[in-house]
Each structure stands twice: as structure tokens, then as C-alpha cells.
User: Fold this.
Amino acid sequence: MNGMLSGTGNLDERLERILFDQAKIRDCIAEMGSRITDDYAGGSLTIVAVLQGGVLFLADLIREIRLPLRMDSISVASYHGGTSSSGTVTFHQNRLPDVEGRDVLVLDDILDSGRTLAAIMGRIQEDCRPRSVRSAVLLSKKVNRAVPIEADYTGFEIGDEFVVGYGLDYQGEYRNLPVIGVLRKEWILPES
Assistant:
């Protein structure tokens, strides 16, 4: 493990600033869960979470959805350890969720370039024969996307900043922060 990333010290001190605290995140997710409950009432909902970043979002959101639902997950990568998308979406599993005839809500932590969300939704639509496919993201960056896609449900919009916490990571760390914040530049390694 890189010595610059690991070590002692308060993780909160590694943040330049906090964008969203626990209360704000909780309120946002409760409101999103209520909207999803209303929109999918009477349907057959399956939530497909994008691992690993979407796990905390998934855990909190499903407790706010007052419907019978199924859960599944999919593992992909597009950042490959850096602070910006590599441009390539790699699927880490061959098996796709069994969602034939069901309403699918793809859940991801952040919408940035659009490549990851578009690739996942496209594969599910083409290969799994769902009734419908929509998306929910906790964060949406206000950037020009490489792929023209927007989420059906968005928690917060943010600027073009590198954020960590609440499931979002930098080189596998910081997911456990209960807040979402901007990582100080001195904790980001130069990209090669």
C-alpha cells in the first residue's frame, strides 16, 4: 500500500472542504426514496448497484423505498486508480443480473463522463430483456460528458472536483468517511 495514502491521522483533515454532511445526505436519500416509491408503485423493481462505490448509497436508499424489491450488483471500473475516467469501462464479471421482465434501477455513486452508466444500462437493456431501465446517482458532476446521458434520479450536483467519502474512493481509500468532501491535492498522487 502506498505510504502516502496510508498512515495515521484523522481522515477528515485530508479534506479540503466538506460538501455534504451526514444529515444532508440522509435527507437527500429519504427524498429520493420517496420519489422512487411513488414512481414504481405496483411494479417489479430490481435495484442493480454498481460496486464498490454504490454500496453505502444502496444500503441507505433501499431502507427509504417502501416497496417489495430485489437487489443485485455489477462490478465495473473506469477510473483504474486515478482521478479521472480512463475512457474504458471494464466489466469485472460475466454474469449479468437476472432482470428479465422487471423494472431495473441502476444505482451508482457518481455520474461523471457518462461512460460507465451508459455502458451498464446498455448491456442490461441489450442482454437482460428488462421491462425498463432507469438510473439513480448520488452525485452528478456539472461537466461536458463524453457520453450524452443524465440520471433519472440525482441526489446532488457538484462541480468538476475530485470527491471522496460515503462510498467514493481514491485508490481504494476514503470510502468509509460519513461525509462527501473534496480531497486535498497533497493527498493525490501525480498521474502518469
